[in-house]
Design goal:
single chain, two-stranded antiparallel ribbon, 6 helices
Length: 225
């Protein structure tokens, strides 16, 4: 490293990961108790400082992989948080990232290893520093993007029922959706394919299983719910 900019003060740069999952018709968030000072023992998002050989996205992907063991997750930048007093330890600017995972794909041993817990959004405790603000902004962005991006499929298994899909939309939007209108609209999208398989586990009468065809979507990504 050079000695340029020595006349300027230095700041730390970190990333914080907001990991959403969907289970039991609820949108959930993965958080844990902070393992370092300041704020040791407080509920917190999981993050880390950006290494000198990483860009921001590399750092976020590293943190996500360490936490979940999963790669190629849906991940979007939420924004930068740089209030002067946001971290009582040092001057730290944090870049928040939002990720979506299917809870059943997540290795639960990693959750135990890092002391993490899934919390329903409506039962979220007070978190360290400005982490609650990060979550609020992430939810706001999810509610905007779900109308124009097929991001809900990142929270579902590869095969799903239309009821499961509707529950994801309702969990993210925070409101009920008319079943008949929702299904009518969903069935107009070619990239949501009906299969010959039937789900008899979640439905006594049996419900048709669908899948998301990413190739079809990429060929014509016009999407608006």
């Amino acid at each position: 490293m050079t000695q340029y900019y020595s006349e300027h003060s230095k700041v730390w740069v970190s990333v914080d990961c907001i990991i959403f999952g969907f289970e039991g018709n609820k949108l959930k968030l993965l958080i844990g108790k902070r393992q370092m000072d300041p704020g040791r023992g407080e509920w917190s998002l999981y993050g880390g400082f950006v290494n000198s050989n990483e860009n921001l996205e590399d750092a976020a992907n590293r943190v996500l992989y360490n936490l979940t063991g999963l790669r190629k997750l849906y991940m979007k930048q939420v924004g930068a948080f740089g209030a002067i007093d946001r971290d009582p330890g040092e001057r730290v600017i944090s870049i928040a990232y939002c990720a979506l995972i299917n809870v059943k794909d997540y290795d639960d041993s990693l959750r135990e290893q890092y002391g993490l817990e899934w919390f329903n959004l409506d039962e979220m405790p007070k978190l360290y520093s400005d982490h609650n603000e990060m979550i609020k902004k992430a939810i706001f962005l999810l509610r905007q993007r779900i109308k124009t991006e097929p991001l809900s499929f990142n929270l579902l298994p590869s095969l799903f029922t239309l009821t499961q899909l509707q529950r994801v939309y309702e969990a993210i939007l925070g409101q009920e959706i008319d079943k008949r209108n929702f299904r009518k609209r969903i069935k107009t999208f070619d990239f949501i394919e009906k299969t010959d398989l039937i789900d008899k586990f979640h439905s006594k009468r049996g419900a048709a299983l669908y899948r998301f065809n990413k190739k079809t979507y990429n060929e014509d990504p016009t999407f608006k719910l």
